[in-house]
TrEMBL record:
Native source species: Anabas testudineus (Climbing perch)
Name listed for the protein in its UniProt record: Vacuole membrane protein 1
Origin: domain of life: Eukaryota
Gene designation: VMP1
Keywords assigned: Membrane, Transmembrane, Transmembrane helix
Keyword Transmembrane listed: yes
Transmembrane segments: 77-94, 114-138, 250-266, 272-293, 305-326, 369-390
Length: 404
């Protein structure tokens, strides 16, 4: 902590020797300047400063496109190989022949896997906590398969329309459904979603690793929080700080198995594990391998098992009965749930058909929730990119002031 204080004083003195852009006061420090810059950037949001936010967003988008184009040009050999593979895939896709059945199968599986990987990445990167797309998409999908499996007595749903729509097979089935058969039915979706969340944990790792290797002291909020936590390690009393320190110590001292343990449980502090691994230069495959195994295999099987047990037939029936036992409002609340479950049972045995009003109401609510989440995600991207451009301007201004 003393090193940081000395560094702040030295840099502050150097700045005071410039043309007076900074006030030469012992109260002025680099931390205070950075805090002021951060507050200025955070005020740059659509609902406060819409015009300048949109302008900065467009300028940052142009800069990013220029940077990506330059990086692609530097790796033009890899890009050329990728384009050749895309061209070969295009020809195979549109050329008639007996191979078309395999092409269609691979296309279906690829798009299905890419869909769930994308939702997993959005949970880690775009939507913040890692729970949103699970609650909005993967959880309901597992629940639907579970309810259908118990109702149909089988998981061999006709394809198509599965997975777009679940209906019971027309052939006779033995009716014996097991927990493991349901887990096997949704394993691909769950593992792909978990792999997406693991990929989404890479940006904090690369950010901290690049900062440590370059010796830079980035203005990233998560990285600053990590540094402050390390400084305040001694004498920490509050639960959140102790929890963060526990994650940091486990990852730093135990290594692969510490990362695996943190990734294998629902852990809102796992971003800190990525920053810790990057800061201490943990090898990439040690970090990503442990994260992938923990999130895509161990944690996903735990979450999947929890959802399947929760929506098993006898537990759902007990829940509906429990809702009905609530005094006064119980019967009114029980009715729409009972009607919804009955409508789902009818749909499973009859493809198509009319949709009940209660199901329409629930679908309408779900669609609006998804729209709100997507809207929030888009707005957060605009705000984040605008703030990133503002950060560029601040760094440029400070650099010019130092050189004067």
């Amino acid at each position: 902590m003393q090193q940081h204080a000395v560094s702040d004083v030295v840099i502050s003195v150097a700045l005071c020797q410039s043309d007076g852009s900074y006030v030469c006061s012992p109260d002025l420090s680099i931390r205070e300047r950075r805090q002021k810059d951060k507050e200025e950037r955070l005020s740059l949001v659509l609902w406060r400063r819409p015009v300048i936010t949109l302008r900065y967003f467009l300028l940052e988008t142009l800069i990013k496109l220029k940077e990506w184009t330059f990086k692609l040009w530097q790796r033009r050999g890899t890009v050329s190989l990728f384009l050749v593979l895309c061209s070969a895939s295009y020809l195979a896709y549109y050329t008639e022949g007996t191979h078309q059945q395999y092409v269609q199968y691979l296309e279906k599986k690829f798009l299905w896997c890419a869909y769930w990987v994308g939702l997993g990445i959005l949970s880690s990167v775009g939507l913040g906590t890692g729970l949103h797309t699970f609650l909005l998409y993967l959880g309901p999908h597992i629940a639907s398969v579970t309810l259908a499996a118990y109702e149909c007595g089988s998981t061999d749903f006709p394809e198509p329309p599965y997975p777009d729509q679940i209906i019971c097979p027309q052939d006779e089935v033995d009716g014996n459904i097991s927990l493991f058969s349901i887990m096997s039915k949704v394993r691909l979706e769950a593992c792909m979603w978990g792999a997406g969340t693991a990929i989404g944990e890479l940006p904090p790792y690369f950010m901290a690793r690049a900062a440590r290797q370059s010796g830079a002291d980035p203005d990233d909020e998560d990285y600053e929080e990590f540094e402050e936590m390390l400084e305040q390690a001694e004498g920490a009393q509050d639960f959140v700080t102790r929890a963060k320190l526990g994650v940091q110590h486990m990852v730093q001292k135990v290594g692969f198995f510490g990362i695996l343990a943190c990734a294998s449980i629902p852990n809102p502090l796992f971003d800190l594990a990525g920053i810790t691994c990057g800061h201490f230069l943990v090898p990439f495959w040690t970090f990503f391998g442990a994260t992938l195994i923990g999130k895509a295999i161990i944690k996903m099987h735990i979450q999947k098992l929890f959802v399947i047990i929760t929506f098993s037939k006898h537990i759902v029936e007990q829940m509906v009965l429990l809702i009905g036992s609530v005094p006064k409002v119980g019967p009114a609340l029980q009715k729409p749930f009972s009607q919804y479950l009955e409508a789902q049972r009818n749909k499973l045995h009859h493809a198509g058909g009319s949709v009940p009003a209660d199901e329409n109401w629930l679908s309408w609510v779900f669609e609006k929730v998804v729209l709100v989440m997507v809207g929030y995600f888009v707005i957060s991207i605009v705000n984040s990119m605008a703030q990133s451009y503002a950060k560029r301007l601040q760094q440029q201004r400070h650099s010019e002031e130092k050189t004067k």
